[in-house]
Each structure stands twice: as C-alpha cells, then as structure tokens.
Amino acid sequence: MQLSLMLSWLLEPLNYEFMRHAIAIGIVVGILCPVVGSYLIVQRMALLGDVIAHCVLPGLSVSFFLGIDILIGAFASGILGALLIAWTRSQSRVKVDAAMALTFSSFFALGVTLITVLRNKIDLDNFLFGDILGVTITDIWRTEVIAVVILLVIRLTYKELLFYTFDRTGAQAMGLPVNTIYLGFMVIITLTITASMQAVGVILVISLLIGPALTAYLLTQKLHQMMLLGAVIGMLASVTGVYLSYYYNLPSGPAIVLVSSFLFLLALLFSPSQGVLTHPRLHHPLR
Fold it and tell me: 241: which of 21, 97, 228, 256 fits an S-S bond (Cβ 3.0–4.6 Å)?
C-alpha cells in the first residue's frame, strides 16, 4: 500500500507537460552547474559566477532591443565583464575581489539603464528568479546541447584544467597556454550561466553553481569526486525542489535553492571529515 502511494506521489506530476519540462531542465542544469562550479570553488573564485551572471544584463537588453537571440548578447556581455576583470587585475594594483565588485555593480547598473533607455519590456523578476515551469522543449534541447559540449570539453582537457587550477605558475613553466586556458574557462562559465539562466534565472544558476559543489567539497577529497558528487546533489536538489513546488504550491526556483542550501547545511554539520559536529577537533581542548 505504501509503495503504491509513493509511486502515485512520484508519477502524478509527470502527467503534466510543464512538470516534465521543469524536471528535465532541472536535471541538465543540476549536472552542468556543479561540475563547472567545482573549479570556481577550488580556485577561490566563487564570486566570479555571481559577477558574470549579473554582467549579462546589458547584453540581454541590447539583444532584446535588436530582436536577436538574447543568448548571443548575454554571452558577449558576460565575456566582456570577465575580460574587464582580468584586464583590471593585470594593469593595476587592484585586487580581484575589488575588480569583481566594481564590474558587478557597473554592468548591472548599465543593464538597468539600458532597459529604461531602450524601453525594453524585460521582467527583472524573471531575470533574477527565472520560470522553470515555463521552459519550452526548445529551451531544454538548447541547454542539453550546450551542456554536452561543455562537459565534453572539460573531460578532454581535465588534466590541463586540473594543473592550471592548483598550480598556475607550474602550468605556465611547463609550457601550458595559461592565458588561453583562462579565456576558455571564462567562456565555459559564461556559456553555462547564459544557457541555464534563460530557463531558471540568475539566482538559481548561482545557487546550483556553488551550492551542490560546495556540499560535495565537504564530503570528498579529490576534484573529480567533487564534480561527480556535486552533479548528483544538483540533480537531487533540482528534482526535489520541483516536486516540493508542485505539492506545496511553492515558487520552483527558490524551492530548489532552499533544498540545495539544506543539503549543504547537513554536510556542514555532519560531514565525516569536516563536519562541525563530527570533526575530531571538537573532542580535544584548544591549543
């Protein structure tokens, strides 16, 4: 009887096309974002994802005004923001966090200004929170294609990215094209954000970039393990959030974010090696 009720609970939402689409896009984004986000975390550049996500707003506005695919404008604007941060770091004494903060605020302000000046009817709430229940089959296929390309590139260049991530100076000394790798990494991040954001919004993209990967970081010791576990956690958070939104009438994007944050909190408290409540250091006096 309980098994029947559980199956009914799981299958009922699948009777609706919008729920099938939401779960499909949630799974794709849930896999892609934590894999890319793992590199941001180990490089201590987690804020960069948030910066690029807000840098795309001017491109969105211009694309909307010109009547072209907003993915093109968003991608170009995001890359420009990432390059501006790198240029500011290389040409001055400004630290990376300050460069990112200034770029973040400047691009977002420019985007809001362009929306007003060009009189674009862009819904900022939709930009920030997305509408995962409103994605189309076209959105799903496009996101899937981009995800496959990005994951394939990461798989083929894993060793180079690993070397660059943990020892950029050593990678340069070994003859690796570190500037090209950096540019390629920026392209991967921007493409991930723009492809995912169109369906699920800025806030959810940032949450899935950082949350599942950070949870996996507390539970694993190696980068590839972190990426794999992060992808599993991202899928779990996405699907669970969509189901919660269906049964409890919650907004889907925030529900996914809250599930991801809850899983991180569990790992933070109970991780076997790094948990606040389980780490051996708690059982010894301070020295």
Answer: 256
Given the structure tokens 């169109």, which residue do they identify? 198
What the block records as the tokens of 48 is 């960069």
Query: CA-CA-CA-CA torsion for 123, 112, 252, 215, nearest 10 degrees?
Result: 160
Residue whose C-alpha is closest to residue 257's, from 240, 269, 270, 271: 240
Convert the pLDDT of each residue in 84-114 to its tens digit: 988 888 888 888 888 888 998 999 899 889 9
DSSP tag of 212: H
Here the tokens at position 229 are 């576990």
Long-range contacts of range 279-285, CB-CB < 8 Å, 24 or more positions apart?
A: none
CA nearest to 151, candidates 195, 183, 182: 195
Long-range contacts of 223-228 (CB under 8 A, 24+ apart): 223/38, 223/42, 223/162, 223/165, 224/158, 226/38, 226/41, 226/42, 227/34, 227/35, 227/38
Interatomic CA distance for residues 117 and 64, integer angstroms: 13
Distance, in Å, from the CA atom of 199 to the CA atom of 25, rounded to the nearest integer, reads 8
pTM, full prediction: 0.89
